[in-house]
Request: fold
Amino acid sequence: MRMRTSPCLSLGDRLLWVQCFSQTTVDPNEVKRFQLLASKWWNEQGEFAALHSLNDLRVPFIRDNLLNAHGKGLPGKPLAELRILDVGCGGGLLTEPLGRLGACVLGIDPVADSIGIAEVHAWHDPDVHNNVRYRSITLEELSEKGGKGAGQFDAVVASEVVEHLSQLETFALCCNQVLKPGGSLFITTINKTRLSYALAIVVAEEVLRITPRGTHDWDKFVCPMVLERLLESHGFHVESVRGMMYNPLSGAWRWTENTSVNYALHAVKLKEDTSPDDEDDPNDPITVAQAKARRWYN
Ligand SMILES: C[S@@+](CC[C@H](N)C(=O)[O-])C[C@H]1O[C@@H](n2cnc3c(N)ncnc32)[C@H](O)[C@@H]1O
Reply:
């Protein structure tokens, strides 16, 4: 069931509404599916091979956007002192490289067995082990008002996760809640097109068996424009959307202008209070998006 909200509610009221009515992003069937795959995360040639190689694009994408926003960290540890939340971290395939870059990363996933695998794997590398923590908890639980997660993170990462959620609106609200003002949200996901049905479901699951059959449900895929509108109505400004292309023969990913199958998105949480100086330039995209968001919330 999709949540209907009134544009008259403030963001805080909407979050309270979500919590009161126990809205959740968790689809129990997805949890069962990933539970069965929990032992496979670190097999680089196995079911999650494409996620291992996706690090070649997504790690630099996250690193470079965070460096642009926060400036350089320590040599060899460019993301030092940044706090990142990896939502739907699975076995920690993306959590670990972010930890190696110096960030303090919390990986969360509703599948407890995946969290167990991630914890054991992180133990082998001191660089990772000192910087990453894992919890089997939902984003909704973490973001609860007054909870430890509220306003704590410089960045939230949800890579190949939103296509497995039961509700995107709750996800957007909770991401806003856990981020600091000006914090970054990074999403990689699958577009909702005929081509994505053909490639991500028919070819990848049924013909080449790159991903297990039943992993994806086309109804849950989301177009970049729909995701962008949703985020912009929940207090974010979308900075960039980039297409990504997977080559099943080489197992490699590359950037492309074409977003019709896979894409990466970077959004920034708006700062609620802007100084009069910030509002001087009516053409500034952040100012425009903030004005739009204010109209929606008030
Ligand atoms: C395709 S995997 C991606 C894992 C990891 N982000 C990566 O790219 O290596 C999707 C992950 O989303 C998790 N997941 C499913 N429903 C979720 C929810 N409601 N909230 C957070 N994570 C969820 C699954 O347990 C699984 O670990």
The chain has eleven helices and eight strands.
